[in-house]
Batch of 4 targets.
Target 1
Amino acid sequence: MNEKVFQLLEFSAVLSRVASCSRSEEATALIRESRPLRVPKEVEGLKAHVQAVLGRINSGDEEPRSTIPSIGGILPKLKVAGASLEIDEAYALGLFVERGDDLKNWLEKGEGDPRNPRLVEKIH
């Protein structure tokens, strides 16, 4: 696909609508930068994974949906040996890890359902 096709299909509008549902600035950026897959097998695999995750979300089991704090500005600091974080940065990083772990554990609980195989595999 080329840019003309993207414009015709209003791809940027679709991405904006999907990005508006994200829970973090990083996820929003990833969504806005994404492009369609071109290999049919990759498309089928992603589609099956999304259907499995949606099945888990629609299962009625309480999903741990929380806002995930932005840590994009913190990540460069973590690469520097001996660097220290401000208390709010350390807290944001802790919340990010905790909430991500809660979501991962919730998804893993749904893997016993044959309709939802390997939900967590794509997250790692």
Target 2
Amino acid sequence: MIVELAVGAGLVAAAALAYRALKRVPEPGAPDDARPDDADVDEKAGGDDTEKPKARKKPKRTGPRGLRVGDVLLYAGSELWLAGCFDLDEEGFVARLFCAPGGERAEWVLQLDPEARDIALLDATDEVPGGRVPSELPIGGMRLSLRKRGHALVTPEGDSLPPATEKAEYVLLGGAGGRVLFVVDFEGGDRIALAGEQMGRELFDLPPGGDE
């Protein structure tokens, strides 16, 4: 009798252990709330409601921009097509010299500041003597004096440009009435000597869409 009771108690204990083990392992197809581990993962994944900062939009340009190859400048009823450019850099902006082939008012356009607020219309001149350009020169019957001189790296862009090298010495002379002389001596190459008149950007226009 005692042996039978012991065997019965053992069977009951084994059945209880098996039942507990079955409760711990969810059956296939069981709902998500029966899977505590998955619930913890979902809480961690969706617990951060902090919004990521939106990228700031670049402010729209409202002031003038520099000139570009391909621009067409409108001046005094005529058009100046900027076909090519020499960009002069000396640890910063020096000038941009654009050729304007067929231009009625000028064959060259000189941009003297990054925003092109100061522009000069120039044509070739033979009044500059050979050798180093002096600090003062009479050009077109007016004496011009040195404004700037230096050595720059030259980057060409576009078409209709004369032969050039990567380095050049430049000289800018100016005088009354906005008269200017700009000379570029390419290292191991030719010289470009140009004279004309400096004027403000307000006297020029770009075609619609050109300021974008």
Target 3
Amino acid sequence: MQYLNPFRIFDISYQNTVDPATVLRLHTEVTTQLSAYEREDTVYIRGNKMKKWQAEAVLADWLDDRTRAFHRKVLEIPFLYSFLEYGHLNYFGNHEEKHDLWNQDIEFAKFVFPYFADQYSNALLQAIKVQDKKELTTLLAAPPPKQTEYAAIYYNSVSEHISETISNLVELKQQQSLHYMSEREILSHLPDKTIELYNLLPEYFAEMRNNIASEIHSLAVVLNNNHGRDDGAEAVLRQGLKLKLDQSLRQALEQLLKQHKITTQIPTWVLVGGGVILLLFLIKFIENALSN
């Protein structure tokens, strides 16, 4: 839900009193301009690019005395405005001051919240996509307003992104090319930097981290059993153990890694020697059977 401030769009100072004549003039000007376009068409309102439906929403907010007053108040709080419209993180510099903002005017908070939650969700996702640890840490340093109540909104975009990571791991298991992939190619589906950022996320994401670990466990089994890739199996298990996990899942990965290491650490000469002894035994057995 993108925030667009009518005062900025219409290039009108929020510090001046808006008289009815100005409101009517803008209504006539914008309505006339928009009449030639369809809902999804791109339009330019005083140099600002947007969809027609967005322009209609901005105009509706402008015509309503209540919402126009809320948009004016947003501009009176620069750190809030810069976050809502541009995603600048100076809002998160002083948590106590920002916390008071949401308690001073309940109606204003209700108006701003949908825009704030959407921008916060997008900012979290962007920080993870560009792997910006500093920005992600800044966003997580102070909990957003009503964090528990609206966690699904705040974390929606990142949840979808992590779900894609899990889906990619599921698809990876089904690829026959696993037999030839290098360890580097396999681990590129869950690199160190991504794990580091996922570990910074709050407890809300604990289950999703565990789901990633479950897929890592399954991938290691497939690599070992279906492709004979001991190296790849060990590599992905070690990678999975870098995640912040529930104790039970961590133990499951550690146990599989331990079993894998016991198997792979049997010296080759022991395996070869055992095979030779078995072969000689079978030959001797056949000779005895024939002689009888």
Target 4
Amino acid sequence: MKRHVLKPPVPVRALVIAAIATVLGALIIVLTAALPWPGVVFALGAMAVLFGLIVLGYALLAPARKQLVISTDENGYQIEGNQQQTARGSWSDVIRATQSDTGARITLELRDGHEEHIMAPGTAHRTVMDRVAADIEARLADRR
């Protein structure tokens, strides 16, 4: 059995925003304690720190929740992801597989007229999707 794990990239922009908000908020809190500023400024600093921590938590948890796992073996495939239902199928039910021009989506055309779509989460690397497509093509070629 071969497993392909597709993960979105690390959200660098969100991590930068979280760091800036947390540092600025902490700086405002410290300055409020050192200088005779009103309590409203302290509250703004605390809200900035809280915002930074919330964004940090989301930035760390979101990529793991958008992970997609494609498992293939000689009999068929299984697609698992937190954001979608699990899909299973047999290679004998697949007519053909195609990959989009951008490489971000693989479509399995089934005998019953339905299609299974494998979409890269976020902006996953094309090389990973190319490996998945090559594995699927090899499985379909073995079937023939």
